[in-house]
Design brief:
alpha+beta; 434 Repressor (Amino-terminal Domain); Immunoglobulin-like; 2 domains; three-stranded antiparallel β-sheet; 6 helices; 8 strands; about 40% helix; about 25% strand; elongated
C-alpha cells in the first residue's frame, strides 16, 4: 500500500516538478520535503507541524489533502518517536541533625514561596511568546489557502484575523486560512489574562 510520501513523490514527478521548485514555492527546506516523501519521520518536527507541511504540499500538487493526511495518520506511529526525557536522579542520603533539617526546610519553603510569587508576577506582566513557523514572510502562492502553524505559551489564546483558533496543551496551533486574490495581510495575536498581546503579521499574495 502506498504511503503519503509515495503519493506526493509520484504526483510531483508526474508533473515533472523538482523538489527545489516545491521548496521555493512552499518556503520549506528541500531536506524537509525529502524526509516527507521518504517517510523519514525522525528527521521532521513534531506531528502538528508535519501535518501542516503535508497539507500545503498536497494542495500545491492539487491532491486531496484530507486523503493524504488520512494515510499519514495510518502510517505515523507517535509511540515510535517519544519525546526524550531526562533520566531521574535519586536524592542523596545526607545525615542531618533535626535542627538542621528544620532550618533547611523552613528556608526552602520561604524560597519556594518567594519564587512562586516572582514567577507568577513576571508571567502576568510579560507578553506571551509567539512563533509562527509557517507561512514564511512575504509569501507568494497560487494555492487559495495557506496553513498557519505556530507555537505560543501554554494557556495562551491565539486569534488569526480576529478568529480564535484551537491551541493544544503544549501551545501548538495549526489553522488553514482561505486567501483572497492579491495581497492578504494575516494578523496572528497571542494573549493571556492581564498580559499584553503579542502580534505577528504575515503577508501572503495569491496570484492565480
Amino acid at each position: 500500500m502506498k504511503t503519503a510520501g509515495d503519493l506526493l513523490s509520484q504526483a510531483r514527478k508526474g508533473k515533472k516538478i523538482s523538489l527545489a521548485k516545491v521548496a521555493r514555492h512552499l518556503r520549506l527546506k528541500e531536506s524537509i520535503l525529502e524526509a516527507i516523501e521518504a517517510g523519514d519521520w525522525p528527521k521532521l518536527p513534531e506531528l502538528p507541524f508535519v501535518k501542516g507541511f503535508i497539507k500545503s504540499y498536497a494542495q500545491y500538487l492539487k491532491l486531496d489533502p484530507d486523503y493524504i493526511l488520512a494515510l499519514l495518520r495510518r502510517e505515523y506511529d507517535e509511540a515510535k518517536y517519544p519525546k526524550r526525557t531526562s533520566p531521574l536522579i535519586g536524592p542523596r542520603r545526607l545525615m542531618f541533625t533535626p535542627e538542621k533539617v528544620a532550618k533547611a526546610a523552613f528556608i526552602l519553603i520561604i524560597l519556594a514561596f518567594v519564587s512562586y510569587l516572582v514567577i507568577n508576577y513576571l508571567s502576568i506582566l510579560d507578553a506571551p511568546k509567539l512563533e509562527v513557523v509557517s507561512p514564511s514572510d512575504d509569501l507568494t502562492t497560487t494555492v487559495a489557502a495557506v496553513v498557519i502553524v505556530g507555537q505560543t505559551a501554554k494557556e495562551a489564546t491565539v486569534a488569526i484575523n480576529g478568529q480564535f483558533v484551537l491551541v493544544d496543551p503544549e501551545g501548538r496551533f495549526s489553522y488553514q486560512l482561505t486567501l483572497n486574490e492579491g495581497r492578504n495581510v494575516i494578523e496572528i495575536t497571542a494573549s493571556k489574562r492581564l498580559s499584553p498581546k503579542t502580534k505577528v503579521v504575515k503577508v501572503v499574495r495569491l496570484n492565480r
